[in-house]
């Protein structure tokens, strides 16, 4: 671990980011060049003290998950992320199938604070959510292991389906099985996709039936109907922006303007705040 290089790199990347780049207000009295340390720490999901010690060449060697969080928070490119890992004393993660979100997608997410949106990889593992996406579908980034994949949770964890209109369940099942088959065909034998398929074949008879149909190109369920625990049914349209280099997708949920579902989306910030207080 090269503490001097790490500290210098973090400082220069932080100072190169402007508040507008990450969806933060500049404020009339701002004198700091780029982001403040506490802002970089918050974007990376860590304490200001921990982040400050890294820039001051103090503290322990950061773990790989911590470095990945910093790379996302500072909107690093893949080359910059790899450099960060190396100077911190770790081998960079593989670029194919990486959980690193491209700076372009992070910039878009930073401007979607008032919209439910999330980034998924090709195994339907949620890498990032806006606060309103968490309020709409729940915190999907908290899962570990096979449960990180929506494909796995859908077939192996019945409670996952409670957020979705029951009449749409068969269509979702077809779509998820077809999407997982597409991921398996891209990743090949010995991949994480194959391991997920094998586990689901052992776990879910329903998945095995859909898998045996060998369907591909099944249309996404549109519109999506979510059952929110406080607001009831919310009908949204899902716009998808693909990042082919990272095999990731940005999902943005919108409702027809003036509709009942549109009004319910406007209530999500208040509902999310109440839920957060209830969990404290």
From TrEMBL:
It comes from the Bacteria. Signal peptide: none annotated. Residues 34-81 form the HTH cro/C1-type domain. It comes from Streptomyces smyrnaeus. Residues 17-36 are annotated as: Disordered. Pfam families: HTH_31 (PF13560), MLTR_LBD (PF17765). This is Helix-turn-helix domain-containing protein. SMART domains: HTH_XRE. InterPro entries: Cro/C1-type_HTH, Lambda_DNA-bd_dom_sf, MLTR_LBD.
């Amino acid at each position: 671990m090269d503490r001097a290089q790490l500290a210098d790199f973090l400082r220069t990347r932080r100072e190169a980011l402007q508040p507008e780049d990450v969806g933060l207000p500049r404020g009339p009295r701002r004198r700091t060049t780029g982001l403040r340390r506490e802002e970089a720490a918050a974007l990376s999901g860590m304490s200001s003290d921990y982040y400050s010690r890294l820039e001051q060449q103090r503290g322990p060697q950061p773990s790989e998950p911590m470095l990945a969080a910093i790379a996302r928070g500072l909107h690093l490119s893949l080359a910059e992320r790899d450099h960060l890992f190396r100077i911190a004393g770790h081998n960079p993660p593989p670029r194919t199938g990486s959980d690193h979100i491209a700076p372009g997608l992070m910039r878009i997410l930073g401007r979607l604070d008032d919209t439910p949106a999330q980034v998924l990889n090709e195994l339907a593992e949620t890498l990032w959510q806006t606060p309103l996406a968490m309020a709409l579908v729940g915190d999907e980034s908290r899962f570990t292991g096979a449960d990180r994949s929506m494909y796995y949770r859908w077939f192996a964890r019945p409670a996952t389906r409670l957020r979705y209109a029951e009449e749409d369940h068969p269509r979702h099942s077809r779509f998820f099985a077809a999407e997982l088959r597409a991921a398996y065909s891209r990743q090949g034998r010995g991949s994480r996709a194959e391991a997920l398929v094998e586990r689901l074949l052992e776990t879910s008879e329903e998945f095995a039936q859909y898998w045996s149909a060998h369907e591909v190109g099944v249309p996404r369920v549109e519109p999506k109907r979510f059952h929110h625990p406080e607001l009831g049914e919310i009908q949204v349209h899902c716009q998808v922006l693909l990042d082919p280099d990272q095999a990731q997708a940005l999902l943005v949920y919108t409702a027809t303007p003036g509709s009942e579902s549109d009004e319910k989306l406007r209530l999500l910030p208040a509902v999310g705040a109440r839920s957060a207080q209830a969990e404290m």
